[in-house]
Amino acid sequence: MSKRYLNSLTAAAAAAAMLSLLPVASVGQSNAKTDAKTGKSKAGQKENAADFQSAPTPTGPAPKMPNGKPDLSGVWTPGLSFTQMGQVPLQPWAEEVYKQRRANLSKDDPEGHCLPAGVPRISPFLQKFVQTPTLLVILDEGNIHSYRQVFLDGRPHLDDPGPLWMGDSIGKWDGDTLVVDTIDLNDKTWLNGQGLPHSEDLHVIERFKRPDLGHLEIEITMDDPKAFTKPHTFSRTYLLRPTWEIQEYVCNEFNVDAEHLVGK
Amino acid sequence: MATSFKLRAALVAGFALFGAVCPMLAHHSFAAEYDSTKTVTVKGTVNHLSWVNPHAYVFVDVKDASGKVTTWAFESLSPNALSRQGWNRNSLKQGEEVTVEGYMAKDNKPLADGSIHANSRGITRADGRKVFVGSSADDVPSK
């Protein structure tokens, strides 16, 4: 396996350098030669692969809003956080559904059909947080372009809006921690790519902390008495990528996969 | 025809490791669509590159001994993932010679345009440069 190949695997894993099982120490910079004047490689491509791989996480104090609350704004990569959910204690029917989805190799995953991920499922792609004193907007680059609005203005939950793909989210501050409460989620989404199911009673509480400039720590509790035997809590850590920007990802543009997802 | 099916234990093992590190770069289950045990190496010329979501596709023309041309369609990563590794829609030129390594689709059905359907894990240009390296090989259970 070539070094260049390993480089790219690591690059694709984004935060794998931190958590990787790969021999990261052996991974060097791109072998491509870069023209000092144009910044282009011999192949004519912009040589930002090295930037992507090194992608340093900035250090410094977490920024504050004018009202003194932490500002969670920024472009964040979830790194490998999106794979980590731990052992979710499922009710028997949910365990059965999960086994069927595993047996089918996740061929019916809604994301394969370009449907929204739901909450708290995320993709490996970037999320952009835009915060005002009364609203936090989370823009997802993928799996499809989707967004979450977290209302910080003290409003209550909507009065039975019907099941929603991304739910109804309101946030309140607990010191420097933003506590986001989400309900009214539909049961069409999977909790992860392996097919963990949930019901419409799913209640998600996310506790967002920005301990410093470069890190966003999220503790997530999922409570779903219909699907779980008890509430389940897990954590994710996002890394700030100040020089990156979310890109287009129009999933339905050429989703030829859908008709070829056969499972076993 | 410079096409051969090879079982490559080492690479498969390598991809199992990759999968453990970097699962779900696709928006769909890799294992539901492609066969990780059925690797393929195709040498031909670039017909065209579709820089589209959710996955870029590289179409490669392969000529057999009789001169008959067959077009292969290789699914690559998504344009956002490719661009962050420094590649773009000009990283491959129409007509240039390439060697593509990848995996066959499970259903053995062509795409709508009749091209043979496979998943790319990397493309080597005539000068030895590798582009579009990486695959959506994934499917690592979380529990």
How is this structure best described in words?
The complex is a heterodimer of chains A (264) and B (143). Chain A has 264 residues and is of the alpha+beta class. Chain A folds into 2 domains: 3-54, no CATH class; 74-260, Lipocalin. Helix content of chain A is 12%, strand content 24%. The longest helix of chain A has 12 residues, at 92-103. Helices cover 16% and strands 39% of the residues of chain B. Chain B is built from 3 helices and 7 strands. Chain B has helices at 9-21, 30-33, 79-84; strands at residues 3-6, 34-50, 57-63, 69-75, 97-105, 116-125, 130-131. Chain B is globular and about 40 Å long. Classes of the chains: A alpha+beta (264), B alpha+beta (143). Chains A and B meet through helix 1 and helix 3 of A and helix 1, helix 2, helix 3, strand 6 and strand 7 of B.
Provide the fold topology.
The complex is a heterodimer of chains A (about 260) and B (about 140).
Chain A: H1 3-12, H2 16-19, H3 49-54, E1 74-77, H4 92-103, E2 127-131, E3 135-140, E4 146-151, E5 168-174, E6 177-183, E7 203-212, E8 215-223, E9 232-240
Parallel strand pairs in A: 4-5
Antiparallel strand pairs in A: 1-2, 1-9, 2-3, 3-4, 5-6, 6-7, 7-8, 8-9
Chain B: E1 3-6, H1 9-21, H2 30-33, E2 34-50, E3 57-63, E4 69-75, H3 79-84, E5 97-105, E6 116-125, E7 130-131
Parallel strand pairs in B: 4-6
Antiparallel strand pairs in B: 1-2, 2-3, 2-5, 3-4, 5-6, 6-7
Which tags fit this structure?
heterodimer, A: alpha+beta, Lipocalin, 2 domains, 24% strand, disordered N terminus, B: 143 residues, alpha+beta, OB fold (Dihydrolipoamide Acetyltransferase, E2P), five-stranded mixed barrel, 3 helices, 16% helix, globular, disordered C terminus
Query: What is the highest CATH level, the class of the largest domain in chain A?
Result: Mainly Beta
Oligomeric state of the chains present here: heterodimer
Specify Rg of chain A, calculated over alpha carbons.
Answer: 20 Å
> What would CATH call the architecture of the largest domain in chain A?
Beta Barrel
Taking the sheet with the most strands of chain A, its summary is:
9 strands, mixed, barrel
Q: How far is the N terminus from the C terminus of chain A?
A: 28 Å
> How confident overall, as mean pLDDT of chain A?
82
Rough outline of chain A: globular
Return residue spans of chain B where pLDDT drops below 50 for at least 5 consecutive residues.
1-24, 138-143
Q: Remind me, CATH topology of chain B?
A: OB fold (Dihydrolipoamide Acetyltransferase, E2P)
The percent range for strand residues of chain A is 15-25%
The helix tally of chain B amounts to 3
Q: Write out the strand line-up for the largest beta sheet of chain B, numbering strands in chain order.
A: 2-3-4-6-5
- Helix amount of chain B: 10-25%
At CATH level 3, the topology of the largest domain in chain A is Lipocalin
Q: Give the topology string of chain B: H per helix, E per strand.
A: EHHEEEHEEE
Instruction: Count the beta strands of chain B.
Output: 7
